[in-house]
Fold these 3 entries.
Entry 1:
Amino acid sequence: MKLSKKWLALCFVFAMATLSLTGCSSNSKGSDTASKEEGIKIGVLYSTTGPFSISEKPMLNATKLAIEEINAAGGIKGKKLIPVYEDYASDPAKATEKIKKLILQDKVVATIGTNSSASRLAVIPEVERNNSVLVYNTYYEGEKPSPNVIYTNTVPSQQIAEYMPWIVKNIGKRVMFVGSDYVFPVNSIKKAKAMLIQAGGEVVGEEYVPLGHTEFSSLINKIKQAKPDVVFSAIAGDSVVPFYKQYQQYGISAKEIPICSIATHEATVKGIGAAAAAGHYSSFDYFQVIDTPESKKFIEAYNKAFNDNTTVTNLAEGAYHGVYLLAKALEKTSDYDGKTLINAFKGLEIDSPQGKIKVDESNNHTWLQSRIARIKEDGTFEIVYSSKDLVKPEL
């Protein structure tokens, strides 16, 4: 009888354990099903620290704003977007780890984010390997495009092709090129030099500094020695701020040798200060001063939502309309397989803060305006040139 009681007790314990495990499994499965029913998971991968945080913080904010607006309007076919946020601290290796987690563990249907070309190129193998989707919202050099990436910002045909002839015509022919030493500046400058020569200009120098560089006295001395009419700058990230400050500090004025940048936006101008930034130029598809109802509404909503000393930039606007393009693509299909979702983007048109934009049907890039603006004495931009029509993204 003792033996029988022991066996009965063991059987009872085993039965309870089995029931418990079955219950856990059932709850977990039910939770996953509920999650799918309640919303659509998307990854958001931006940096709040590191050398690109000055650009990525506004992008993160704009992404949050767009998601909140879309959900408040009813979501996607009644389902809310469920963002899963990850911070990769401007580190490409960490970005790879984070996007792998987002895809495999969090089961996101797409990821909004990354910023530098180094971070984008680092995550693409994981995106492609797992048939996922990346919505990339930063201007870039237009090389090595991925079939799994939607590009919502400019390439050189949209940012530089009309910039170089304008520089030659309005400022001068002798151009010195400077940039941060990584993929985007190096490859963009290579294309810009060819465009300059085609426009009748002359290259008088080319210099690069390490990413995150903060001491520019040596570079500025080289600029003085070269005596260019203009400095074409692809110095990027947080380095933009000390470059402009020291440019003025070491005795070069914007009136004497203006900087024409492809990486200096409203957030960096805010860091530089109006005194050192005024008189220099930038080329982007979007500036805050664009006079459209959509832009005014976007800026007002952004400033109301975020009191964190950030400001709207072309990158933030690219992230904002990137989310809206993703939402429209998700509405077109109920199959969120990577290839199917990418196909849903093709030919999409939306009214964004900068105006009507569309996704090219063949290369996953967005048709955008080309604009050039001068920084005024109060630190705001004044648009001095706009393309007549949307410019095709040529790779």
Entry 2:
Amino acid sequence: MTPEPTATPARVPTPATSSTDDAPTLLVTLTGDDRPGVTSALFDAVAPTGALVLDLEQVVVRGQLTLAVLLAPGGYLSDLRDVVEGVGERLGLAVNVVEGRGDNRNRRTGRAAVVVLGAPLGATAVAAVSRSVAAHGANIDRIRRLSRYPVTTLELDVSGADLDSMRRELALVAAHEKVDIAVSPSGLARRGRRLVVMDVDSTLIQDEVIELLARHAGREQEVAAVTERAMAGELDFAESLHARVATLEGLDASVLAAVRDSVRLTPGARTLVRTLKRLGFTVALVSGGFIEIVQPIADELDIDHARANRLEIVDGRLTGRVLGDVVDRQGKASALREFAALAGLPLARTVAIGDGANDLDMLGTAGLGIAFNAKPVVREQADTAVNVPYLDAVLHLLGITREEIEEADDADGTPTPAPSTPHD
């Protein structure tokens, strides 16, 4: 008796779904020379199959494209594979197709943004950072470049991180590799309006105003020595301020205008403030210097608040005294809290930037404390440090790219410096 022929199983199409965790999926990666129309060519070809797009990422590095898409087939898996491979062959792109099930795995909690900034940024530094993240048990989910000049900045999107311990570990990497590294909460904590409070002398500006005034009084070296000891934390700031101001007794008040005119903004200061204001941030200056110098700078840059000491002037001459309470270490932190309350912002949404020991309370109070070309004692205690001479590098720590800054400048006609020079 002749046996019945065995029936061949019918090809069963896979229904497209975006909700079933174990539904078949295709991860498609195309790589090769970038050109206009690659993405549209892929999806024009895929669309008739009824596939759903579950995830999509594309990056171009020096003209080389990497396009990755996760698809839920609307029919036969093999048909979808044939379609995408045909697109790659037609466009001269390498295609890799991996079958699997379900969407991407959920990202772990402990999301952090790790920003690495170097001038230059060596491969050994990137290796050390990524090795430290892995040793911490965290995962680097995405990497993007925030700037290529005058510094190179990378942002690593990390999950599975303990913020405090990772910050401590990467601070050691930063010191060893001579790069700047900032670790901040990711997600919503990285977005929205903030308050940014800056020190003035040797932060917003390149000078120490008391020394400029002392030069007019012929007491520059004496004052500079006291200033250095105070900034290093060896002297009480209020006492040192009174001692330095006393040397200015009898100085004609007209020198204040001359000093204002001679003050040099730190490279990138205008760009930093201009960009922060475009974002709707509140910007403030808090200085152990003098409001007679600080307020005109704040007015020129459209800064919202300024807090500094006020010199006593009688009959057109400095008396060698200051009026009211001294804006010292505690005063700077109090001003930050006050400005945050006025802006209706929690302290977690504040950023402080400074370089001296009298900035430490302010840096510690802020949600993110940044030591800018600071003394060692300040770098050790701040959340992060910037050791390049460009103040607008702070923008990259907040996740803002150089391209975004330049596009905004171009939109309102602000001149953009040549690539070899920093913004002013």
Entry 3:
Amino acid sequence: MRRRLALAAALTAMAAAQTAAPAAQAGDLDALIGRALFRRAWIPGTASATANDGLGPLYNARACSACHQGLDGRPVAVAPDGRVTGENLVLRLSDAAGAPDPAYGRQIQTAGVPGVDPEGTVRRDGNGRYHLADSAYGPPAAGVRVGARAAPPLRGLGRLAAVPEAAILALAASQAGGGLRGRAHRPEGPEGPVGRFGAKATAATLEAQVATAFALDLGLSTAERPAPGGDCTRIQAACLAAVRGDARPEIGAALVRHIARYLASLEPPPAPAPDPAGERLFAEAGCAACHRPALPSPDGPVRAFTDLLLHDLGPDLDGGATEPGIAPTEWRTAPLWGLARRLALGAGLLHDARAAGVAQAVRLHGGEAAASRRRAEALPEAERARLFAYVGSL
């Protein structure tokens, strides 16, 4: 406990020293502490740590910022032999109903503390698909599917949090019975809040999203995900033996709130230059039906180009792994704001960053988006180019 209090005190002092205004608001201080935590490199615990066993035992990265460098995304780093060497792409595992693999859990962790071997490596084949290699426990169980997930951009999350739940539900109701069948997902159960964060809308709050990242990517426990071994399973004896500390969460609720506050404080990407012709084509092709240009909030329109609903996008966008209650082909409509920056960085589009540009991403849209894709592809060449340029400018 003394170690935890000392860390919090040090972070508070660091944040206070960086505060430009002498009378900083409490929310600003929270965000500054959160930024320090977001950038902090976590380390494994020691035998003397009784309340905190530290990083791992299995993990993908040592810091949140390692996966989300620059906040806007970056290309997936791949060695000449196809091995993924960066931290911004992971492999998820599940069966078609969302149940995790009995040996590997929900995610392949590519690093371990001393004495704990990584679960495997991630490699990219000649077709741009990712798979598990050098697996520590053999192939995943029968029926378990593997799917890559690229780290998403983080700007503007606070604005998405401000969209009233009633507005999301109203959009779902307006689409019921038509060609679109967008639906709200409640990750905490039928009476819980609506999910709006994550590629599958599996987190209703930024705090829940942060807790998931601590558990799966860093192997650190929180109140929401208290397992001290993170994604370690009962089959992984070395991982279980390396767990130290007691049953208390390693990352307290206050630290989770600080990081969530920092993420909420990140300003949305700048609005693109007006392009009435591009906007018209975007609407006429049907893209705006799901990628809604604006959602309401108490602080004004949220111009994120999403409806925050799950849509079935067909077999070309089958993500392999999924979550309970969500089909492998269902995705939350990805916000398009910041797309120009992501493309400029060469970060790739879609959940696994496989699309190099807008045209390729559109071509993979099927299911509920098939009619819009056909309308876009049927446009005269000049208008199609104008539409794709407009989307790429967002």
